[in-house]
Write a structure and sequence with these properties.
Elements (H helix, E strand, L loop, with lengths): L3 E6 L6 H6 L3 E3 L2 E3 L4 E3 L6 H6 L7 E3 L3 H13 L4 E6 L7 H9 L6 E6 L5 H15 L4 H12 L2 E6 L4 H5 L10 H4 L2 E7 L5 E8 L1 H15 L5 E8 L2 H12 L4 E8 L2 H7 L3 E8 L1
Parallel strand pairs: 1-2, 1-6, 6-7, 11-12
Antiparallel strand pairs: 3-4, 3-5, 8-9, 8-13, 9-10, 11-13
Helix pairs in contact: 3-4, 5-6
Pfam families: DegV (PF02645)
Protein name: DegV family protein
GO molecular function, one term: lipid binding
Length: 280
C-alpha cells in the first residue's frame, strides 16, 4: 500500500498552517553571515535580513546533503513508500541537483524529484496542488501529474527597488540594469523556461511598475480564469494596495497573499512586489 509524502524547500513561501495541514515536509536553505549561519524561515525572518542591509548583506546556500538525506531517512522510518520532492528552480539554486543526488541513495523508495522552474509561491502552488491531490486519495502518479501540470501554467512577474542585491548574489541572469537604474527605469522581471531571471518589460518609476504588474494580470485574464498570488518583500503596504485591485479583476478565482522568505530577500533586498499567475 502506498504511503506518500510531499517534500519541498523553504523558498516555497507557504504559510506554516498550510504546511502543517497537509503534512508537507520542508528542507530549509541557509542564510550565511561571516560569523553566523541561519536556517531559512526557522531561526531568521525576512525583516531581520532587511534590518541589517545595506551594511551587512549575507550570502545564501542550498541545504546540506546530509540534511536532505536525514529528511528522507526520517520519512522512510515512518514507513513512507513514495516521496514527491518539489524544489526551487535549478536555474537559481543547486538545491534541485542536491536533492536528486540524495534521492538516488534511497532505492527502496519511489522518489520523484521535480524542478519547479520557479520559486516563492511559483513553487508553493504546485506543492499545494500535489498535496491536495493526495488528500483526495488520488494517489502518487496523479499528484505528480498535477504538480507538473501546474508548473506548466505558472507565470511570475516582479519589480524591485534596486538591482544591487540581485547583482551581488550572482542571480542577475538576463536582467538588464545599470544605465536604466540611473534613469529610474524599473525592469519587470520574470523567469524563463530555463528557470532563470530575465527582463520581461521596462517601466519608468516605481508606481508605474506596480501598475504594469496589474496590467499584466488583467491582460492574462482577459480570456482565462486564474488563481493569483501577490507577494512582497518588505513592501507590505504597496502589496496590499495591489491585492485589493487584483481582487476586483474579472476571471480571478483564488487569491493568495504572502511575504517572501529570507533567502529570496537576500537576493532582492527590501521593496519587492511580485505576482504569480496560475491559469486554469
Amino acid at each position: 500500500m502506498q504511503k506518500v509524502a510531499i517534500v519541498t524547500d523553504s523558498t516555497c513561501d507557504l504559510d506554516s498552517d498550510v504546511l502543517d495541514h497537509y503534512n508537507i515536509k520542508v528542507i530549509p536553505l541557509k542564510v550565511i553571515y561571516p560569523q553566523e549561519e541561519y536556517l531559512d524561515r526557522v531561526n531568521i525572518t525576512p525583516q531581520q535580513v532587511y534590518d541589517r542591509m545595506p551594511s551587512e548583506t549575507p550570502t545564501t546556500s542550498l541545504p546540506a546533503l546530509a540534511d536532505i538525506m536525514a529528511t528522507y531517512d526520517k520519512l522512510r522510518k515512518e514507513h513512507f513508500t513514495h516521496i514527491i520532492s518539489i524544489h526551487i528552480s535549478s536555474g537559481l539554486s543547486g538545491t534541485f541537483n542536491a536533492v536528486t543526488t540524495a534521492a538516488r541513495e534511497f532505492r527502496d523508495m519511489v522518489i520523484e524529484v521535480i524542478d519547479s522552474k520557479a520559486l516563492s509561491l511559483g513553487l508553493g502552488i504546485p506543492v499545494l496542488e500535489a498535496a491536495k491531490t493526495l488528500k483526495e486519495r488520488l494517489g502518487f502518479e496523479a499528484a505528480v501529474e498535477r504538480a507538473r501540470e501546474i508548473i506548466g501554467k505558472i507565470e511570475i512577474y516582479y519589480v524591485l527597488s534596486t538591482l544591487d542585491y540581485l547583482r551581488k548574489g550572482g542571480r542577475i541572469g538576463y536582467v538588464a540594469g545599470t544605465l536604466g537604474e540611473m534613469l529610474q527605469v524599473k525592469p519587470i522581471i520574470s523567469i524563463n523556461k530555463e528557470g532563470k531571471y530575465y527582463t520581461y518589460d521596462k517601466v519608468r518609476g516605481r508606481k508605474k511598475s506596480i501598475l504594469r504588474l496589474l496590467k499584466i494580470i488583467s491582460d492574462k485574464l482577459s480570456h482565462k480564469k486564474a488563481d493569483v498570488a501577490v507577494l512582497h518583500g518588505g513592501a507590505e503596504e504597496e502589496a496590499l494596495e495591489l491585492l485589493q485591485k487584483v481582487k476586483k479583476l474579472t476571471n480571478v478565482q483564488e487569491v493568495h497573499f504572502g511575504q517572501i522568505g529570507p533567502v529570496m530577500g537576500v537576493h532582492t533586498g527590501p521593496g519587492l512586489i511580485g505576482v504569480c499567475i496560475c491559469t486554469k
